[in-house]
Fold each of these.
Amino acid sequence: MPYTPHTEQDVREMLRVVGVDSIDALFASLPAEVRVDALNMPPGLSEHDVLQVLGGLASLNTPQGDYASFLGGGVYDHLIPSAAEAITSRSEFLTAYTPYQPEVSQGTLQVIYEWQTFITRLTGLPVSNASMYDGATALVEGVLMALAKTRRSVAVVPETLNPRYRAVLDTHLAWNGMEVRTAGRAADGTTDPDALAAVLDDAVGCVVIQNPNYLGCLEKADALAAQAAASGALVVACVNPVSLSLLKTPGEYGAAVAVGEAQPFGVPPTWGGPLLGFLSCTDELKRQIPGRVVGRTQDARGREGYVLTLQTREQHIRREKATSNICSNQGLNMCRATVTMALLGAEGLREMGHANRVRCETLRGLLRELPGVELPFAAPVFNEFVVRLPGDAEDFCEYARERGLLPGIVLDGAAGCDERDLLVAVTEKRSTVDIQAYAEILHDYLEEVEA
Amino acid sequence: MAADDRKYTKEHEWVMVEGDVATVGVTDYAASELGDVVFLELPEAGSPVTQGDAVGTIETVKSVEDLFSPVTGEVIEVNEDVLDAPETVNASPMDGGWLFKVRLDGDADLDELLTADEYQALIGG
């Protein structure tokens, strides 16, 4: 089978047109020192042999399903309805190209429209885009929108912001002549209002509130938002969408933009990606919204239909003056999340949120009882919390992994935490057996360390 | 023919000077070429502008174009009516659809502007 698209005849023909008589002659102008005579590659293999080799490599991985995972920190292990996989696998969704041609893309456009509807309802803000690559880049876009709207150049972020989001934000803003300031945290694990006041001035156009924050703690979002508003800054709320079935929405506490990671809805953690960002905003900010938006309309005969809207501000029309250099969306994962949210419904979402909160509290209660273990932060949590061990938490992680459990992320250096601190996430997928096992494994570990 | 009570720019804007205040809008030629205007971003009152700067945008159903300041000075007023009803730009580009007013910082840069005849020649008339 001709895997190589150029036949010898093609090559000869091209060389003839160019006017050289061999491939070597074609590349003769390249200096000898940059030319490679032989690639360090094994010889070609048969299809069967390739599958053997790759299968052997793949078996070196341990599937995440083999562990009870308490890993979170932005990417979570939630239940995924089988229907989400089945529906998203339909070729109409799986292979769909960007829907520039609405007359042949109504299915894709309708899914995006439903996604936008769900996101606006969850976040309590009226306008959503068609999705973004991940929570971190969605946060960057939200901050850029707020700074563009206020015509100010400084963004304030909490010390308790996910450090990976912070790194992405720093990367984008540093080269745009903008500044990122940090509002420190209080002893209870939430943002210190005095620390926020200390960094607010009339150059600050945007205050980011992450809720729950990276330490799992619930911020006093109302009070922080009021402080930001009083100094003329817009609030960008970075939220876990699963928590929004129980918590106040960003719209309710006056956020101008809500962003976050929608991976918890139907997208497996895999290798920490691909992920799925969301972004919604107030009506006043809709002209600043990056990416694309799908609108519902009527055709000439009055039939309902869906189209891309606000395209006039996208890159393929505005070039370098586009609102953002993002002019796409995360179609496949967005489809999975939309199907998952539709299957859950409002009641299911509340049950999911409730199960996360209850199971997290259960494990937290069990760990609190263990001698030598400390829960360093007093603020309430949703589905994630920090536990402080007497020694190096990485040592415990290794011990737990050998017993089939991924106990959390070591917080070395994040938000003033150190190598003893472990970030533990508990979703509805963790059974009471898993939760009990966690407490027992930690108990046994501490006894062994003691002995 | 282009109205000779004002000056013009290559970017299809008009400038009417009264005393030290210049009123700026887009020409009727531009309004008809752009199509239905759906949104405008105008500079804020009080902001300084320099001749040739992009100071806002005009969005139609099919494109978004920059608005340039044809003069140098300080914006003293923007037309709130066109912000509320952008279609005014199509209905009355040369009159009720004016966009913003600038208090001129000297009149040197008025020489750079096109006369009605020059503008008419530009749009092929």
Amino acid sequence: MATERRAEVTWSGDLMSGSGRVDSVSSGAIEPLEVSWPARSAEPDGKTSPEELIAAAHATCLSMALSHGLAQDGHAPERLDTSATVTFQPGEGITKIALAVEGRVPGMDDDAFRRAAETAKENCPVSKALAGVPEMTLDARLAS
Amino acid sequence: MPRVQRSADVNWSGNVARGTGHITAVSGAFTDLPYTLASRVEAPDGKTSPEELLAGAHAACYAMSLAGELAGAGATPERVDVRSTVTLDEVDGSHRIVGAELHARARVEGMDAEAFTRLAHAADEGCPFSALIKASGTVTLNAEIEGGSGGD
């Protein structure tokens, strides 16, 4: 079954001095978020950006795919802490996504966890959609 | 221009069917947004999902790209409204993001509809997210101008 998710943005003015707002998303989960070019290309100053939203989407997707893979192997995780860092080169595009995940998984060794994380990175729908990003890295480890 | 990094953190507890995650933007723009498998593939029930966040990224990326194209052509927009709809579907037994649909409406004085359509397509080409998603799915664009000349 296909699932659709929608977001709406309003922008006023030119790129450099104008500003925008992510007004509404289909779930209603996100309050209006301000965006601007200076906040995107220099200091965020409390504002989100397309690259930060992509980072959030990717970390979210990896966590789900990994929890699914681990549970299928009989090692449902107690907890996964995941981060994604998206590098944006203005004029060029998104050049790198660095993923990191730390898991608390009873009865699993580091190697098996790293393999499961690598599989999740390869297969999660957001990774596949962003396969054109030149560099995608993963640092996976078990919590000590 | 220097490169820019943006990060987000997610924590997840439990298996995929019954677990819950929380999403935080490092900029501080949003904190601890909850999500679950059900909110992703069934009714959202007030929770976000990776695909919704991508829709937000895409709409924000395209809106900026269009504002840049219009301003570059000497026609600063009064207002641009953009909607992106991202579709997740099952393809050969696994979930795939199959495409994104953009709807844009811009209020720009004195621009003809043809010139606007050209810039709207250039904005799609220039938006990094559109470029990426086209490698594995489709991006459709529907752009309209208000207040232009020679159009309605």
Amino acid sequence: MFTFTSRRMAALACVAAALVLLAGFVFWLARFTTARSNQAAASQPPLPAAGSAQMFLAERGPDAGDPCKGLFTFTIGGVQYCTQGFDPPPSDVTQDVPPIDFSARAMNATIVCDGDGVSGKRVQVLYVHPPETNRYNQYLTSFQQWAKDMDDIYNASAAETGGTRHVRFVHDGGCVATVLNVQVSSANMADPFDMWNELSAQGYNRTDRIYLTFAETSAYSLGIANFWWDESLSPSNRSNRGPSYTSSPKALWGGSNPAHELMHTLGAVNASAPHSTGYGHCYDEYDRMCYKDDASAPAMQIICADPAHEQRLDCNHDDYYNTNPSPGSYLSTHWNPANNSFLIGAASLATTWTGATSTDWQTASNWNPPEVPGAGDDCLIPAGMPRYPVLSHNVTEAYCQGTLTVAPGAQVVDGPVGELHAETAVISGTVQVLDGSYFDIGSAASVRPGGLLVLQNGDVGMAFDDGGALSVNGTVRVTGTFPIYGTLGPANLLINSGGLVEILEGGLLTVDGTVTNTGTLSQTKTVSQNATTSFLVITATAGITRYFGVDITLGNVGNMGPTSVAIQGNQSCPAAFRTLGMTVGRCYSIAPATPHTATLKFYYRSAEAGPIPRRWPIT
Amino acid sequence: MAYHLTGSTWNALTSTRGGSGEAMYVQATDVNSFSPFALKDPNVPTYYVMLPVSLRQ
């Protein structure tokens, strides 16, 4: 059940009485008259026009000490939420939007795929219905199309500031939004707050979800969402995590109203925004979030003159949605929902390691803001900290569901027997994966110039859950047995120009995907007489060879001892090589401890053979 | 052919070519001076790219 704050309840109660007479929103009557009837006469705000959502929003305003600052409040599972209240329907609203006629409009519900479709922060579309009505099958493809229509609003609006943003929906393998069919009680369908409470009780309460609801109800004909009213420019902004909820009754099914309601949950429009009404909306039309939501709100202004901009977010992108805000502008210094991590393409707002207390990843006081990185958060390990994370299994495991960034000069020690999980990783400092440790990546990891990734004996090695690549522009040092592999697809190794993968004595690297070397691969092994020693033979975990290097065969001439072989691959080699006019894009360096006469076998891929352009004049 | 760079001179090594498919190789025997090495097919011409030249007075 929800409860209104008492301060505004008096006004709401009397307004609600008017509502019953004027608009027929019966469900409000019982709530107001039974809960607060004795306060109903305490205030008599002016009655708004019949059928307008602002009727619900009388006598409000920023209020020190009130976490909802003048908005309405309710609870879900004992947690206080805020809401801007009901949003009005368009003038041509009908009571029952029919399914999309796909004979008249081609279905194009394919959204932008992101990862496995379920991991991390996502918007979950729900069709919520009472027991007596279930039109899921009739509307499923329409819901999916409307999800795409919503996404189009978000991305087209992002394009106005040169960016791209897509709603990160829960989606299936075909990149179509997943719509869950959820039944709640008939009584709870009549009230969005009660419906959300029941959804929460059914388990739709994940912190990495926003539940976007198509509600099978005509008990109200106004959209509604919770709105956290948090202006802080921080990854811990309350709008940057769930659970949050919207509800669009069947009179408002489509792309527009859900897009509006979703934007509330993402954090729009905050009271300090230049064109804020002060009640969760804006007054600079045309704009998907703007309307006069209260009698005391500023007069509406037509600043973006094109009426078509009613289907776009943030007229002039100065209040709540800008993918590229100018330094010093409002959205560069306050919460910018365009960077909400429920959106694909959002700029990073990383939780930053401080090491203020210990080396324990799971200690909140080691982070700024002081909370352990949560669902979808990016994680930054900066330079100059007094301590750095040290991870060990079942003690200090690390989960970064966003991007893990290890800055130059910073480090993470994973193990021995540690667990480091990140959706993606960017390593410009040092990461050591020591004996028996996990290093799980969602899809991509890169070692930047100056970065160092040490791979010792990995228990399960480096797993790319979605498949992907380890891209190397810095150094990867393999000192033990270490597999790199993908779970849903292969994991590839890309050694880029300037990158180095060095396999030290005793090291064994396997890669289940491709190995592409346009940088340097090297290996050190001991070469003994009367034997052939193979260097840089990288196999897949299944035993397939991904890369061939050099064989050194010695007769009965004595041992070479520790010998290093390096291959600069797939490239035209440095200046001295140009005079040769080499026609295979590999340069081989061999450095034995003790030289002896040997037979060398230089391997190369057939694709690496062929004319290599030389520039004239030769330098 | 495998070549070994000695100072500023590339010396051709006694080489045989083999392999198939993806794994081609050039084998050189009696190698007693090491690094660096490069491979060249004498039958494949090298492309020369003429760079623009600006003249100054």
